[in-house]
Design brief:
Layout (H helix, E strand, L loop, with lengths): L1 H5 L6 H7 L12 H24 L4 E5 L3 H17 L3 E5 L2 H9 L15 E4 L3 E2 L5 E2 L6 H10 L3 E6 L15 E5 L4 H12 L2 E4 L16 E6 L8 H9 L4 E4 L1 E2 L5 E5 L5 E5 L1
Parallel strand pairs: 1-2, 1-3, 3-6, 6-12
Antiparallel strand pairs: 4-5, 5-11, 7-9, 7-10, 8-9, 12-13
Amino acid sequence: MLRQLLIAPVGSTIAKSYINCSSKQVFKCFSTSSRSAMSLEQAKKIAAFKAVDEYVRNDTVVGVGSGSTVVYAVQRLAERVKAEGLRLVCIPTSFQARQLIIDAGLVLGDLEQNPRIDCAIDGADEVDADMVLIKGGGGCLLQEKIVASCAAQLIVIADYTKDSKRLGEQYKKGIPVEVVPMAYVPIRDRIAAKFGGKLQLRMAVAKAGPVVTDNGNFILDWHFPDTIVNGWDEINRDIMMIPGVVETGLFVKMATKAYFGLADGSVIERSA
């Protein structure tokens, strides 16, 4: 454990736990939250590595998703490019993904030159038993869905906390809906009137006012009622028909396979 601790990346939860402790207190200093964070990060990593190893081939175009788990996917892509000489073109789903690709020394592409993607690897905020996803907790749902729609296969990588029998079981922040700013109030009211629940305009943390997406839009987080347990395909279509709705964080019938990393170091898989 101590060796793993010493090689943890600076700035990580594990590293912070170490540098704030004396050598005599190092083991006492591990709080339950630190151990949980360590397990979650390892779970993300093993899921990402397995997905990249099983689905990425030479001379392919790869969609690179957004979020904390994708960091490990990019790490593994870079390792395989260096070790195996793979020729890959990587299509980002966000500013974050673009920077990850550049920093890793991978080939950056776009949809203009690569409209067809062999596989997209992305995370999810929640995955239900029918492989319906909630995505967009990080605000990148529109570009994520565009890239996923261009991919022959969408591969989901996540830790065990994202695996649910039904949507809303574990993820409590709602379904993101990206909207044109001028229309957020009527859209909010129409969704609530038709489906129930509550919609909140997502507010920024480091600035005054709402979150603004990479596309210049607002995000409404829909805390849907517990009575909705299925029918997400129809619900998604109905919401998308409201003028001013740009995209939803409901990914229905899009994922090919999901990898969930577990705390014990194993990975469980689910196919569509």
